[in-house]
Amino acid sequence: MSGNCKANRRQLLKIVLPAALLVLLAVVFWRACLAPTRILVVNATLAQQADMALNNDNRHIRLRFLDADQLDKVPSTDALMLFSRGLYLDEAQTAAVEKAGRRDVTVFTLVLSNQSVDINYGLTQSQTDTLLAYFRNPSRSNYRNGLRYLRRIATPLRLGDRSYEAPAALLKNMYYHREYGRYFPTHEAVTEYLKEKGLYHSGGASVLLMSGLNFPMEGNRAHVDTLLTRLTDAGCNVYPLTASGPEREKMIRALHPDAVVYLPMGRLGDDDFIGWLNDENIPVFNPYPIIQPHDEWIDPLKPISSGTLTARVVVPEIDGGIGSYCLATQNLNPDGFYLYTPETERINSFMEYFARYMSLRTEPNREKRVAIGYFQSPRGDGLIASGMEVIPSLYRFLQRLRREGYDVSGLPENEAAFARMIHQPTRVGLSREQYERWAGETLLPEKYVEVVERYGTAPGRIMARGDSLSVDCLQFGHILLFHQPKPAVGEDEFRLVHGAGVAPPHNYIAAYLYLKKGFGADALIHFGTHGNLEFTPGKNVGQSQADWSDVLVGNLPHFYFYTTGNVGEGIIAKRRTHAVLVTYLTPPYVESGMRQRYSALLDDIHKAIDADGGTQSLGLRIKQEAVRLGLHRDLGLDSTLTVPFTVEELKQLDAFAEEIADEKIIGAYYTLGTPYSERDLITTTLAVAADPLAYERARRDRDAGKITTEQLQNLGYLHHHYLPAARNDLTALLQRPPKDTAAVAAELRPALIYREGLLASSHNEVDAMLRALDGGTVAPAPGGDPVLNPNVLPTGRNMFSINAEATPNPQAWEDGKRLAEETLRMYYAQHGEYPRKVSYTFWAGEFIATEGATLAQAFWMLGVEPLRDKQGRVVDLRVVPGEELGRPRINVLVQVSGQLRDIAGSRLRLLTDAVKAASEAPAASGWPNYVAEGTEEQERTLLAQGLSPVRSRELATMRVFGPLNSGYSTGMMSYVEDAGQWGAERELAEGYLNNMGAAYGDEDNWADFEPGLFSAALARTDVIIQPRQSNTWGPLSLDHVYEFTGGLSLAVREVTGKEPDAMMADYRNSRSHRMQDARQALAVETRATILNPTFIRERMNGGEGTAQMFGELFRNVFGWSVTRSSMLDPQLYDDLYRLYFEDSEGLGIRDYLEETNPAAFTSMTQVLLDCASKGYWKPDIARLQQLKALRAQQLQVVEGPSDEVVLREERLTPQAPQPALQRYAGWVGAVLALVLFGLLILLLRHKRS
Amino acid sequence: MKTLLTLIAMLSLLSFLLKGSFHPRWGVALAAFALALVAGLSVPWLIRQSPAAFTAWTSSTRHLLDGAVCVVLEVLIMAAFCFSRVAGCWRILRFYPGLLAFPAVVWTWAQVLYARPGVNFSLLAWLAAAFTLAVTWGAPVLLRRLLPDESSRLEALFLINLFLLLLTVAATGAITF
């Protein structure tokens, strides 16, 4: 039996073993010779993936595509192909690729230029060159054969179709057309081709079309072909070009087109070439495809990717590109690959814009119809434009239009008559039927439903007359002036100006429909900074018909006079309304007179410091003067007049007084087209040039060993020892500028250039607008404060932004690190410990001006540093070891403006990555990790609030917050300024926590609002920091500062129970960025401006717009009182009353205000009454009575300028009784209850007895 | 209510462990593995639940009443086991480990999870499984060694279940309708 069994087993083995061997051999043979070659392609764009897959016709090749971030472990493959453009591999990913290479996987990197990744394995140099020849010349046949060639190398033994053709050399630089395979070396050949095909239009505009380097040959170009066809159909002779480098420029110069349509991917050319295009008046249009699918694109809350934003929008703006419309989306085709799909409506919109713009070149000025929108303060206290006197500017501009041949008939002969007319515009009636027909032709049905749902059926209740709507406008010949209506109903000023997040009302839509369809405008101008169209709901870039700003501009060529000082919001206006910005000057900088006022005191202080305190009498004299001026209050010093200040205190006083003395202040508002006066020219040039000159001289002295580096970095020292001489030298030069500059010292020459730039600006601005109205170019330029960046001069140019991906740039990084350390040093010196959390405010203007210095501060607080690729982009972060940091890892929170969020979304995501990385960083010996502790605490708080552990964990690292619904409004201004609306400051804090509580941290939680998250993230905030990068505004003069920083401070106080320290990151001096105590910053500005008679006198030279600013300053005082009263000197209210209402300096300010802008004066009166009613100011009874009497008198005089302005009665009545009653209601109730209880006891006793 | 529920959960677990001391070794192992599996798998589910919702769910009148019925049934079964063990009948009850331990272990780990922010979820799941396995496998063995006298263990089991019943009655009395 067992013998049989053994025999059977042997028999079985004889069969099984060979069979297994056979199977094994078969598998080995199949793997070695028959299996398809697996090629893994990493980091190809979706379009490239589609091109490769659709052109591969070899069934023995299997393509698989992978994103770079999936490369931590290389999947099993025969060949690995890396597309190096935009590729960044971290150490682990590089190791994984190299490991695969050593494992006999053929690795090929397609290097296109100077890129960081270049890994090749299993390839000879000749093979690498051949592969590069295929893939650097991307065409259908090269893709097809390149893959076949790679297969041969990677799997040499595999059978099957092993044929391939040699790489087809393509012309690097050539013209092409719709017909695939027809390429042309010169534009003359294209002309011949067009004639041959009957596509040539004699007399038609020649248009150069550039669609990127690879499209023409790769296929996947439906949108390019559509555009080509549409341009041809529009009567243009289209020259599609693919070329790069100097050859591209050469070919364009040779063609000398009438216009360039460039679907951008990087810059079109260098600055010289862009200058040439501008000189030759060749406009560059930049429509672009995006890589998102259609559904994602039309989602209003989905921003376009940061890569697309940079390459397709930000960089072309540097070239001065216009017409930035989204042309195509990228959608999945049935084969599972993404192909570009033309968005027909967008292409139509772009074509309409293009045709209208180009027609401006040929249409005579006399025939052109131009609509000009101007803006009115929501309070009705004047026409507004940042830093600009609107009425004289507009009047002069219209006069200039008349001189240029435009039909401006009916324009009054003098400015006063024009001013009267503009304050009483004509009401053009628009019947409901007409309006609804136009709306139906223009708006998507669902958008109109939004309007009806919110405001009822047309005509609604605003600007309605019976069954029709009214549009406020003035028409002079072919020029229409229209008053931009409010974009929503309500009284929140900031929301009205910066977007209310809801559909605009009928009268708003009617105004824009009327100018296009009723008036028949050929072009639209918005006059001054800034209106509200750009803040109506919708996307920032890549708009569709569903975005209000896009649809209301209506594809009209749109030009926007915009202050050069506000680049952050300017960029938003540009992108959201397809605007060509034409910058205008900031008001001139003037002497504050404070140096003269403080000169005796400063001399005494310097003597005392030099003598180590000086004599007792000198010390007492200084103290007496400082106390008389109230400087001790701003610095928190004592006021005992019998004890002099210590040397340390004197140094503090010195720095403070020097800062006030050198504070740059701006004078009366600028009038467009009117050059600065000779005096203003000198003072403004000094403001621009003196600091750099002083610094340069000090730097030379430092290099020569005459002063120390610390002295060089000490602003007070420079102001004291170098600035006066620099100012004197420059003043002497500027008072008599020589014709021949060769004899001028090299260090002084820049001042002459700045002077020329300022002089040229006033005519350049209007000239640029006229050139634009002729369908011409407006030269690109950076934006910002001219003092900080004189390159913005001359104005009259089209502002651009910066590449957010490269931020923080190396300089900003070094600055940010230093300022973060300075913040910690200042806090430590005052509190004896490190702050646990620092909360920053990020604004677009600062971000653009400093290229990310505040972002760098936040990074360095967290203890992470940016890692860059070879193109300088910040692509990753490194956690700095705790030992190297030498201090705790400080937790951060960032609140952002909507504008910053829109231009630098990728940086906010990077910041969240930094928080995550810092939270996971190992603890260093002796140094706590406050980031990790904060993350854990935030998670615990959220958990306690009822969120799931997963959600709590997910949100525990959210530290970036901003306005809700991708909007721009904090919603604070109406709360704060309308004192009747709120009782306790707590209500404001709650409003702020709600309105600014949207998280902007990562893709998954972008714009999410989770109740309680913002307050959880604010916990333990010890310091708040506000950046300032412009000399044109300060914490007092700009309402947004109290709105954001004051609001944040209030919110922190509500959450933590204590007021955080407040600092300002001061970037106004490009050579000396520093941290500044916010209270002192406000005190400096207060003393140099609103309490400074010289400043008031200067401003009194201005008109309605300048006067309006006084009202704004007063409202800002109230804003600070409400949000952070510790910022203000309690004496300020009395000082303001004396100066403005009693005219204690005899300036005539009250008469000026009552005459020039009574509404502004009314507003100032109301502010002081509000301060009194809320208890911030405790005036004596007489003053209060006088103010009330004045207010009552004003009530009878002031009228609202239009139906839109509603002066609420309750604002005008005394505020005190009602809140007092509310406040004491509880106590009154309690006392009443006690009395009743007592009565009950008495009653019971009485009964018993 | 939370304290009451915690006590009920602890007693249920103790009852489970004591009951385990009457099981054969493979039975203890099987029950321990099952409980460990539930503990481990419950963590990924628990992390998606809001603590407030979880507390509301466990404290809702309906669920408390349903739970009370389950506890009473369990107590009855355990009491029956105690008597059957003495009488030597209904041997089948020997193999019933006590099902209340399953919700009790989930509840216990939920409390740990909600009290420990920052803990690694995956690690916690593995720890929950491992700890539960170790305790529910080891404790019956330990109890058998500490209380070798079977009647003492039976008595303890009976008393624990009796106390469990009382607590349940108290808990239902605390319910406000």
Question: Can you give a write-up of this model?
Answer:
The complex is a heterodimer of chains A (1249) and B (177). With 1249 residues, chain A is α/β, with parallel strands linked by helices. Chain A contains 51 helices and 35 strands. In chain A, the strands form eight sheets. In chain A, strands 14, 15, 16, 17, 18, 19, 20 and 21 form an eight-stranded mixed sheet that branches. Residues 1199-1230, 1232-1237 and 1243-1249 of chain A have low confidence and may be disordered. Chain B has 177 residues and is mostly helical. Chain B has one domain (2-172). Chain B has seven helices and no strands. In chain B, helix 1 packs across helix 5, helix 1 (2-20) runs antiparallel to helix 7 and helix 2 (25-46) crosses helix 5.
In short:
The complex is a heterodimer of chains A (about 1250) and B (about 180). Chain A is of the alpha/beta class. Chain A contains 51 helices and 35 strands.
SSE blueprint and pairings:
The complex is a heterodimer of chains A (1249) and B (177).
Chain A (H helix, E strand, L loop, with lengths): L1 H33 L2 E6 L3 H10 L5 E6 L12 E5 L7 H12 L3 E5 L14 H11 L4 H15 L19 E3 L6 E2 L2 H11 L8 E5 L4 H4 L3 H12 L3 E6 L2 H11 L3 E4 L8 H9 L4 E2 L2 E2 L4 H5 L7 H13 L7 E7 L5 E5 L1 H19 L7 E5 L15 H14 L11 H9 L2 E6 H11 L2 H11 L8 E2 L2 E9 L2 E5 L9 H6 L7 H13 L4 E5 L20 H6 L4 E6 L3 H10 L2 E6 L4 E2 L3 H17 L5 H14 L1 H5 L11 H16 L2 E2 L11 H26 L5 H5 L1 H7 L1 H13 L13 H25 L6 E3 L15 E3 L9 H22 L5 E6 L1 H7 L2 H10 L1 E5 L5 E6 L2 H4 L5 E6 L1 H6 L1 H15 L10 H15 L4 H7 L4 E3 L9 H6 L7 H11 L2 E2 L8 E2 L3 H6 L2 E8 L10 H18 L4 E6 L7 E4 H11 L4 H7 L4 H21 ...
Parallel strand pairs in A: 1-2, 1-3, 3-4, 7-8, 7-9, 9-10, 11-12, 14-18, 14-19, 19-20, 20-21, 24-25, 26-29, 26-33, 29-30, 33-34
Antiparallel strand pairs in A: 5-6, 5-8, 12-13, 15-17, 16-17, 17-18, 22-23, 27-28, 30-31, 31-32, 34-35
Helix pairs in contact in A: 4-5, 16-19, 22-23, 22-25, 25-28, 25-43, 26-29, 26-30, 31-33, 33-36, 37-38, 40-42, 42-45, 45-48, 47-48, 48-49
Chain B lengths: L1 H19 L4 H22 L4 H9 L1 H27 L13 H15 L5 H26 L3 H25 L3
Helix pairs in contact in B: 1-5, 1-6, 1-7, 2-5, 2-6, 4-7
